């Protein structure tokens, strides 16, 4: 996703929803359905105009309110694919790097990508070699009719020649099936050389379009990453700061989304900003972490410098509320989260804590193993989460065996539409094990694990490795976690009321 202004998954939560919670579900259903129809019409109009960025944003708004819309999901992925295509071929740095890439090296990257997808991608039903080849063929076909690609890669080729070559592709390559990766590589090589002969396109460019097609059609988070060492090296660091980034087809990054309440939001980073410069710490000749970045916002001519924090706390706003009710805000899951949590709990226990409110609102996730460790701190036993994937490490059931070591006081958890990924794992584990009362609004619904893998001689891929499932076996992805008490307006106050009511019934 490039420079998309990704909004809250629950834009529809408003006064109407509060009324619906009380007595008017039919009215809200009709209102939301009408709003979805209007947004779909707007998105379709933008798609017809080939405004891929705006169309993708519009379809995302539909998904923000209705994650179950398969039509919106398919159209969103299509527009996202067209947007990525336009972006990479609008960038002179990407074009230069790919044009300088030898055919042999681009083919090595292609075979490497296919191998990594087949060995690691979560859904085996979607990674057959014939399917991956056809996705690549489709991607190249889209490129041939894309105005930006036409201007950048074959400016002097006439329309008739392009259309004739597209017809030739359809005639010769829509039927074959493949059993070996090497067979796909040979087919891609033949097509690349044919495109060079007929349209004067460099073969390496054609090959990389096949790589993009194989990667970009898997799901909304899996994607080809153009050559960019910085993206791979600093993805985790930027994520911990509350920044979801995407490659812009050069050595810059685009900020897709800034998590509410994160460090990034506090320093003024916004959705759509571009990271145009990175300064890294040089530690004994090795590439170290980022120390500052140059950020360029839309409409600005000069970037501003943002210094990276030396450390990023993940447990904030620790305080004791009246009546012995502790409160803490957990904003991410990092390597330091568990010791930070232990320190906060010790402080609250020393002040006589009798119940605890854990605020997960705006938590985008972070390190999955850390979220499991935090769940163990509150659960004496029971299943925390099940993950399913091809990689053995992500195909297992995680359970708690904390026993008496788990903290044993009434627990209340605040969630919202920005609560995602590893934060949803914690919320779902506490809910399904009847350990906590969840208050707020349904969570985002990102129940997948991604990783970034480097490709031989040609960028990298962001690949979905596994899916999360609740202790009861329900998927998180596209569904999220529903609170016990739907209270989007004043969840903290509602949690305090529930805590006081619970404590009043205790001796």
Q: Using the 3D structure, state the CATH architecture of the largest domain.
A: Alpha-Beta Complex
- List the strand order in the largest sheet: 7-8-9-12-13-16
User: What is the CATH class designation of the largest domain?
Assistant: Alpha Beta
Low-confidence stretches: 1-31
What's the story with the biggest beta sheet? 6 strands, mixed
**Roughly what percent helix?**
40-55%
CATH homologous superfamily grouping of the largest domain: 2-enoyl-CoA Hydratase, Chain A, domain 1
In angstroms, what is the radius of gyration?
25 Å
Contiguous helical run count: 17
Classify the secondary structure makeup into a structural class.
Answer: alpha+beta
Structure write-up:
The protein is an alpha+beta fold and 507 residues long. The protein folds into 3 domains: 91-218, no CATH class; 229-312, Pdz3 Domain (Roll), CATH 2.30.42; 315-504, Alpha-Beta Complex (2-enoyl-CoA Hydratase, Chain A, domain 1), CATH 3.90.226.10. Helix content is 46%, strand content 19%. It contains 17 helices and 16 strands. It has a 6-stranded mixed beta sheet, sandwiched between helices. Strands 1, 10, 11, 14 and 15 form a 5-stranded antiparallel beta sheet that branches. The chain is elongated, with a radius of gyration of 25 Å. The model is unreliable at 1-31 (pLDDT under 50).
């Amino acid at each position: 996703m490039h420079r998309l202004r990704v909004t809250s998954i629950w834009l529809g939560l408003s006064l109407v929803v509060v009324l619906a919670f009380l007595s008017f579900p039919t009215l809200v259903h009709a209102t939301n359905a009408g709003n979805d129809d209007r947004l779909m019409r707007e998105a379709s109009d933008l798609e017809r105009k080939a405004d891929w960025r705006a169309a993708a944003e519009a379809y995302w708004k539909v998904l923000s309110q209705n994650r179950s819309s398969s039509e919106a999901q398919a159209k969103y992925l299509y527009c996202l694919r067209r947007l990525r295509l336009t972006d990479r071929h609008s960038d002179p740095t990407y074009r230069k790097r790919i044009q300088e890439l030898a055919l042999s090296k681009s083919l090595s990257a292609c075979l490497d990508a296919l191998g990594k997808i087949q060995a690691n991608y979560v859904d085996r039903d979607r990674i057959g070699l014939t399917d991956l080849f056809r996705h690549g063929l489709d991607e190249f076909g889209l490129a041939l009719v894309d105005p930006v690609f036409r201007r950048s890669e074959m400016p002097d080729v006439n329309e008739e020649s392009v259309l004739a070559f597209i017809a030739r592709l359809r005639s010769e390559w829509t039927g074959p099936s493949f059993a070996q990766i090497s067979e796909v590589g040979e087919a891609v090589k033949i097509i690349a050389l044919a495109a060079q002969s007929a349209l004067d396109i460099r073969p390496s460019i054609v090959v990389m379009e096949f790589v993009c097609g194989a990667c970009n059609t898997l799901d909304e988070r899996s994607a080809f990453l153009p050559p960019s060492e910085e993206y791979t090296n600093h993805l985790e660091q930027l994520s911990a700061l509350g920044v979801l980034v995407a490659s812009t087809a050069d050595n810059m990054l685009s900020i897709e989304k800034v998590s509410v309440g994160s460090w990034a939001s506090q320093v003024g980073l916004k959705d759509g900003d571009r990271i145009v410069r990175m300064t890294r710490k040089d530690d004994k000749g090795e590439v170290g972490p980022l120390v500052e970045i140059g950020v360029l916002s839309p409409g600005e001519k000069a970037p501003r410098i943002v210094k990276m924090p030396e450390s990023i706390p993940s447990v904030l706003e620790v305080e004791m509320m009246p009546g012995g009710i502790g409160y803490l805000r957990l904003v991410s899951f990092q390597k330091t989260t568990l010791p930070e949590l232990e320190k906060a709990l010790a402080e609250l226990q020393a002040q006589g804590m009798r119940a605890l409110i854990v605020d997960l609102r705006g938590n985008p996730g972070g390190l999955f193993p850390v979220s499991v460790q935090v769940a163990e701190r509150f659960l004496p036993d029971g299943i925390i989460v099940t993950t399913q994937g091809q990689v053995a490490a992500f195909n297992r059931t995680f359970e708690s065996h904390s026993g008496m070591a788990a903290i044993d006081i009434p627990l209340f958890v605040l969630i919202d539409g920005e609560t995602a990924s590893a934060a949803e794992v914690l919320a779902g584990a506490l809910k399904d094990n009847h350990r906590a009362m969840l208050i707020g609004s349904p969570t985002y619904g990102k129940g997948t694990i991604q990783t970034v893998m480097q490709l031989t001689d040609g960028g990298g891929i962001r690949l979905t490795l596994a899916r999360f499932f609740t202790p009861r076996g329900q998927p998180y992805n596209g569904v999220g976690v529903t609170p016990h008490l739907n209270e989007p307006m004043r969840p903290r106050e509602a949690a305090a009321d529930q805590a006081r009511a619970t404590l009043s019934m205790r001796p």
